[in-house]
Amino acid sequence: MKHSGSKNRTHVKNTHYGWTAATIGLLLVLIVPVLSIVANIWNGPGESWDHIVTYLLPSYSYNTLLLILGSGIAATVLGVFPAYIVSTREFAGSKVLEWLLVLPLAVPNYITAYAYAGFFENGGSLHRAFDIYIDMMNTPGLIVVLATSLYPYVYLSARTFFSESIQSQLQASRLLGYNGWQTFRKVALPLARPAIAAGLLLVLMEVVSDYGASHYFGVQTFSTAIFRSWFSLGEPQTALFLSAILCVLVLLLIAGERTIRGRKKFSFRHSTLRTHAKLHKGWSALISVAVCGVPVVAGFFLPVGQMLWWALTHGISVESDLISATVQSVLIAASASVIAIAAALCVVFFTRWSANKTVNTLSKAALLGYSLPAVVIAVGIMTATIGPEKEIVLWLRSNGFPDANFFINNSLLGLLFAYVVRFLAVSYGPIEAAEQRQGDTLAKVSRTLGYANVATAVKVQIPILKRSALVAGLLVFVDVMKELPITLMTRPFGWDTLAVRVFQLTTEGEWQRAALPALAIVLAGLVPVVILSRRND
Amino acid sequence: MYRLTGLLTIVVLLASCSSEEPQEHVQEAQELTVYTHRHYEADQELFAQFEKEHNVKLNVVNASADELMNKMKSEGELCPADVLITVDAGRLQRATDQGLLQPTSNPAIEAIVPSHLRDAQGHWFALTKRARAIAYNASNTTLPEGLAIEDLAAPAWKGKILVRSSENIYNQSLLASLIIHHGRDSALSWAQGVVANMAREPKGNDRDQMKALYAGEGELAIVNSYYLGKLVQSEDSLEAEVGKAITLYFPNQDGHGAHVNISGIGVAKHAPNAELAQTFIAHLLSVPSQEVFSSANFEYPVNSNATVDPLLASWGSFKEDDVSIAALGAHNKEAVLVFDEAQWK
Amino acid sequence: MLEINAISHRYTEEPVLDEVSLSLEGGRIGCILGPSGCGKTTLLRCIAGFEQISAGEIRAGATLLSSNSMHMSAEERRIGMVFQDYALLPHLTAQQNVSFALHRQPKRDARLLAMKFLKLVGLAEFAARYPHELSGGQQQRVALARALAPEPRLLLMDEPFSNLDASLRQDLGQEIRQLLTQLGTTALVAMHDHHDAFALADDVGVLRGGRMLQWDSAYRLYHRPADRFIADFVGKGVWLEGRVRGENLVETELGTMSGRMEEPLTEGTSVDVLLRPDDVVHDDDSLMKAEVISKQFKGSEFLYELKTVSGATLLSSVPSHHNHPVGEAIGIRLETDHIVVFARQ
Hints:
The complex is a heterotrimer. Chain A is mainly α. Chain A has two domains: 1-33 and 316-537, MetI-like (MetI-like fold), CATH 1.10.3720.10; 39-272 and 282-314, MetI-like (MetI-like fold). Chain A is built from 23 helices and two strands. In chain A, strands 1-2 form a two-stranded parallel sheet. Chain B is α/β, with parallel strands linked by helices. Chain B folds into two domains: 30-129 and 261-307, Periplasmic binding protein-like II (D-Maltodextrin-Binding Protein, domain 2, 3-Layer(aba) Sandwich); 130-259 and 329-342, 3-Layer(aba) Sandwich (D-Maltodextrin-Binding Protein, domain 2), CATH 3.40.190. In chain B, 47% of the residues lie in helices and 16% in strands. Chain B has 15 helices and ten strands. Chain B has helices at 2-25, 41-54, 65-75, 89-97, 107-112, 169-182, 184-197, 206-214, 225-232, 237-245, 274-285, 287-297, 310-314, 325-330, 332-341, and strands at 30-36, 56-62, 83-86, 101-102, 125-137, 161-162, 220-224, 246-249, 260-268, 300-301. In chain B, β1, α2 (41-54) and β2 form a beta-alpha-beta unit. Chain B is globular. Chain C is an alpha+beta fold. Chain C is 23% helix and 36% strand. Chain C contains eight helices and 21 strands. In chain C, strands 6-7-8-3-9-10 form a six-stranded mixed β-sheet, with helices on both faces. In chain C, strands 13-12-11-15-21-14 form a six-stranded mixed β-sheet, with no helix packed on it. Chain C is globular and about 75 Å long. Classes of the chains: A mainly alpha, B alpha/beta, C alpha+beta. Chains in contact: A-B, A-C.
């Protein structure tokens, strides 16, 4: 914002300081758990550090690198091609495939991993039916699992871009005599690079933070090193040090995405007129169906089918604790979504009002939570909050409240806080993007009409962001439904979510019994996922 | 949608209030908080029984032992936990070393638990035992007489051994016992020998090892005894088939005996209800409870008066390695380091 | 050159285009005029090959482009199009954008040709700029150069002036007309403003609700509109009540007017007569007076709103040196070559 009058400027500056302080305060609360981990860089590692560097890090880092590269490339392929096809072609089933392609988002990685092992491995469904089996529980297998369950992030981002931002560029290219494939290579791909990078970043953050699937497949990653030094070696110090290194790695990923996105800033007019030219038939349609169908089958129908088969062999009986677990999961996920939306709105607006570049950069740190193994976050929150909280409780107890107890840790408050820290990146993304698109013209108009910042946000900007906020909330909802480690560790007494039940059963290999709650997670996640894909139309 | 989520939030808040209410009511009555790594149905059954018999409300927190210990450490004197249950001695020993458990002196408990299965100061007690044994398919494999776990490092077994990852506490405990018996260096060369003999990269749990065994991927698998029980009883016909085809072999019968690891319990340092905690431990060690552990979860009872489940009994009795469990715990970390050195995944 | 024969197009049940026909001779510029939502963009997209038609035929010369059973794909049609949002490729410079259209040529030829076309649209010195470094008008020209470069058999332009300001439109309209004529390009343009249309086009059609109401030369459309909607849409004017008084004679409150009528109406028919501002001429000597109600200064002329003695309202455009204050009665005279009349319903 430019202000001409010097009087005006001093006035505005004061407000800026206020908002800068508010932003920093809010960010501190949100990134305290992450900070308490990053701070360990200065504390250094524990005594087994040399051992870890010698024996673990080389192969673990190598595996992590392989996973990042492999699932990055695979998820891009699985996401971008179908996105292009459904935004430019019509064929039998294209409308249905367009939203089916989003469904794998509802299936947690670890469930896909169990299902793949149960389907392909020795003794699995494939083995029983055709007497062949495929080794899945290795690095390539894990890449397949991660890519098939995470590609929708790339798909969603690319599809929105293809069908809403560059429709006319794509059509112009066709008119100039380029066929579909040439148009893809020369126009769609170069222009979509930032959009693809944004989706890919989410995929890679999930890959880096994954523990459940890689643990089950026996693939040792950087996360494994964190768990091993903490749990097997009993050195939380070293674990936190490694987590800090992981944070730096993720910051590098984020920086990479920013450079891809920031190099050239194109703005596109919203053009949604799709072609309805030719209903593709024959080979051309078959190829389209195959390219769009493979990810759906691999990421959704195969794992869900395997779960269904397990559930059926076990015999489907809906017990009351399954219902109560479902209700609790949905309640928790819904509340976490609402809070995550509110937090993201605050971060976005506070940052904007502070109009301070440094604060703007700092605000990205709040997104780190998404990339850290969830357990580390849970521990980070505990480490950061429990000290002061303990003091407060002790003080209360000695000052007339003998029954005072923890109110953050072991309570819903703490659990929800942990979710928000973990999933802020998820709610922040769509809201920030929408806010950027909206620009500040409306805000300026509103301010010339005499509304202050907050009033402007409440009366003008937030209502416009409503749709993006809903999208953000739905994404968080799905993620919380799937979340396991934080829930396991910070949930209050008596709150057993579906994910917790699945975990309890699967750790003992009770796949059949775990299948029903696993399906319930998928089902509860499907509702928002379908709403999401419908909304985009 | 907004209104809906708003409504849901209110409901959650109400629900969380109401869920705390009964706690306040029973404040007068007894309350016991259990931090446990065990997540078996059998446990839930026993917990419910205890609640009923003693009019106590149990708060159960279920997570990995390490997470629970970290929680206990952070919560300090405000920690609500009364007892900590783990599935290995190593964690209990670590908890003891970190000052998270308090010594308990209870003659009734000490009478039940043999001295090598508990901490000398009473920081913890074993609840059940599991044997680390060798599984094989008797229809196509014969194991030599007097096989010791140490022999598995010999080149004769190249490409024949199935075993899970070294991240697993049962493997760590086994290696710790070998370190105690033979020293670090020979334990390391044993681990290296086994790694060289592996039929495939370690993956999956003990069930998976037995399934692979049945499919002919290897000739023998190192597994915990209770997993075989679970296979035999599985609802899945193929798993049950695997379970029936597999025979359990207890190694080292001519020497120090088969390695045994435990699941155990200790009273928390700041337990608000230490006395009730002892009652709880006694409950879990009582003959009926021990028989539930044995029949529902296929673990060997610690209480010698308890009847072993017929299935377990059918595998035969065997000589147990009576190395002190406390010593196993003390050597756990060393075992992990040795595994890493041997590149045992 | 372009023959459109009774084509229909529908997304759902409601047709977007309903039996639209038009024909455009080679080298002529046609214009589809209509309010937004009338279907003009859809018509262009059908011609370009982005939409399929459900009935009728589209031909370019002898080539059949679309029918209900045949659909040539867009990239095979050799039709150029300037999109409403220009659809420039933001990662390419102006020259690269134009070269992009010349991919069938060797690279060097393409570069030279691209420069030639950029020169034609007056942008030679901006060749190295990226689209976001160009003004809206310049982007428009790049888009035009890109569409013209491969020498398409037909050029389509969708609302070419909608994103430009008024002063730019006039000039650009003239320039485009000159350029197209010079190149002998056949073009069809969709627009909503009749001023722009008349400035640019030879033939104009009015589309409403998916139906082509009239397809005619610009002159005839203005002076002989086929119905009231067209008459209102293509220019200002007022309607006066009247009665037919013989061949080419109509009696109104302003006297009897003479002029050619499109369709002969029987004597005595009640009609509405359209008077355009240029039909009402200011003449100080005239006996017929009308009072100035309001006036709009248009630069070279005034548009006066007048009230006659009998109470009728008229519009008159008058050279701007005749400046009369509001309230003054001025002399007027009717000068009608054609009389646009429609029988009153």
